[in-house]
Amino acid sequence: MPVFEAFRLALQTIRAQKLKSGFSLLGVFIGVASLIAAWSIVNGVNRYMTEKFAQTLYGVNTFQLRRRPMFAANVPDSVWRAWRRRPRIKFSDAEAVTAALTMPVVTAWQSDDNGSVFYGGKEARDIQLVAASERYFEIKNLRIAIGRPFTAQENRSGVPVAVLGDAVAKRLFVDRTPLERSVRIGGIGYRVIGVVEKQGSVLGFPLDRFVVVPAFAPAQSLVNPPGVVDALLVKARSEVEMREAMEVAEGVMRSRRHLRPNQDNNFVLDTSEGVQRFWAGISRILVVVLPGVVIVSLVIGGIVIMNIMLMSVAERTREIGLRKSLGARRRDVLRQFLAESAALATVGAAFGIVAGIGLTLLINAVSPLPASVSPASVVLGVIMGAGVGVIAGVYPASRAARLDPIAALRQE
Amino acid sequence: MTAPALQAFRTGDTPLPEIVILTHKLTRQYDMGGEVVRALQGVSLQIKKNEYVAVMGPSGSGKSTLMNLIGCLDTPTSGEYWLNAQKVSDLDDDALARIRNKEIGFVFQTFNLLPRATALHNVELPLIYAGHGARERRAQAAHALERVGLADRMAHRPNELSGGQRQRVAIARALVNEPSILLADEPTGNLDSTTSGEIMQVFAALHGQGQTIVMVTHEHDIAAHAARVVTLRDGLIATDQRQAA
Fold first, then answer.
1. Which of A216, A238, A260 is the C-terminal boundary of a domain?
2. Mean pLDDT per 10-residue section of chain B, whose length is 245 residues
3. Pure H helices in B31-118
4. Does chain B have fewer CB atoms within 10 Å around its N or its C terminus?
5. For residue B119, what is the domain's CATH number?
6. How buried is B156 (Cβ within 10 angstroms: 0-12 exposed, 13-18 middle, 19+ buried)?
7. Would the pTM count as exceeding 0.80?
8. A319, A327, A409: residue with CB nearest B100
9. Is B108 an 8 Å CB contact of chain A?
């Protein structure tokens, strides 16, 4: 009997026994649906991380000269301690690197720490206090909603002016305009000259809880020791120019630090790839946990299907006897029941795929997690569904194939 | 008279196309939990092409066992069974399945139709296992249904058919592969006497067209339709008589 014939027969049987088939599909259905939904979340966050999150945090074609990476997952203590022993990035380092960059780039200094911002009797806590130079806004793609950013002149002179993040402005001023009012940071008054457009959040992290002040403003002393910056931000016009600029910066820093050729850098040139590596570390954990969930549901699904198939073989003993008497060989009977069980599981997987895609769309609509369906997960879902069916069908089908036709025909 | 034909089959030098079934000292024992039951104790039988044979005997006489052996559903403990000059008593499972498919058409007491399949599909079943294509199957199955007078019932399911019609579907299924033997096990056991008569008319017509028929029955008036009656008792042939149809 050809395989196609076996499948046609299997689908007929499934259609004839809708309720029983429905129950036996459930396990595979859940397994495949959860596979697709979970995979879609990982996939979606992945894409989000590479396309948007990294760009938001770093900017396009931008690298940062830092003492240590901004994001790192699974770092051993020894490495962490070594990072902490590294020398800081000095104003003079940043100036020397900037001076050496001959290609057209935009640079900015940045130091930051968490702290409070006060206005009148109100306090905005846990705010990212950023001391940065004037082109920070351009590199970070922060557009000013009202007011203006500070100028190069204001930056160099360390004029106490502040540009607020949207959340800070809302917290301290509610509906009033914050412009020309004075907020206090570290006991010193800063005149508010601008508010940045609302940035929203990524993966639930708010992006609007910050204040930017000039790099030479008094707040610098709250954030870093004198003459030290956390990062020099360099934005190039293209990826190629960014790589060139990174080489120049590396050379300048190595010579300033007097590193011999066999010594490693004691600074990093961090790009958005760093964030992506960080995310890759997290997603690897998901990739380990996810198969567990899927495998458990598929195993349960397989056991259910095996039971249903054993019942089906018992109920249809007479039919099997008849088929054998009409010339069905063992392998024909085996194939028929394997096909039936594979078809059952595949139909379950198909429903699971629909549900998984639906779930993905739902997650997209109601949660901050960006999810997008991966075609590979759909293919894998079908393969695993059918595979579970075949494996679960082996035992019942071989029992059916071994039935003695005489005894089977005699059965009531 | 068995011996020369057997000798011819064994050596294979003289073709004897008119002998369809030849059994030689066929025995079958069952081991029923340590106790050996001798269902057949040496049955030697020859059935020629286009014979119409009824096998009779009380229950426990071994007629079902003989039927299963002739139908290649079972293998003998000892002895030989030649079907169309082929020794089938020592064939393996798959080879026997092929013989059942090509050479034997079964008709059962309880019809054994697939309840959810149409008459046409039921008749198609043996052709599926013979590996025929869908179009050819349909044409052959339709032709077999026409032969038993059910041309207008092809799309009906068994529960939409009368008992006699169901048995005729089963006969069509048995005939569809044009087997050497039509093997019927109490074919009228579940039918009233009028319908039984109809089925016997179908058998008589098929016999008239050259079909070899072996029928197990315990009813004398049914056996009376056959041209030859073999009676078994205690696993042996007790009588073997030809009679006027």
1. A238
2. 74 81 92 88 93 92 92 92 90 92 93 90 93 91 93 93 93 94 92 92 93 93 93 93 78
3. 63-70, 93-103
4. N
5. 3.40.50.300
6. middle
7. no
8. A327
9. yes
